[in-house]
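Protein Entry — a single chain follows
Next Lines — sequence and tokenised fold
***
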Amino acid sequence: MGRKTFLLSLILVVLLSQACAEETVEASLKTPKKQTIETYEALEDALLSGKPVVALFHTTKGCACTLKRCKTSIVLVDDYMESLAADLAYVRVDIGINRQQGKNYKIFGAPTVVFFDSAGNEVKRLNSWEIKVEIIDPILSEISKSANEPKTEK
């Protein structure tokens, strides 16, 4: 009798702790620290700014795993971009709002991060599993460096 009670108590504790851990992760992913405009117009304006641009394409519509990847990417990229002193434009775009515009940028899945140089040309893109600081950092270093190089007349 004591053994059954112990096992049931142990199972209950494990289940409750797992549920609490999942709620904590979900709560931390709900509200990104940095509010950004999530429209294609904002992206187009940023591309005309003469600055390198980082665009995070995500969605607010989709299956649970896609939404979780998008929320995780938003938090990661927002935090990383906030920590930079570089002169970059950062835009988040919800592809669920206008799927056709997403296709115009060749975005077929979310999340996707696209890096543009100061002339508005795409330099690199990362899909969901590639969105990591250790991958983003060298790309941003390269586009920031090229943006700061003196322009030579040909």
Remarks:
- Helices lie at 2-30, 40-47, 64-83, 99-104, 133-148.
- The beta strands are 53-58, 89-94, 112-116, 122-127.
- The chain has one domain: 32-148.
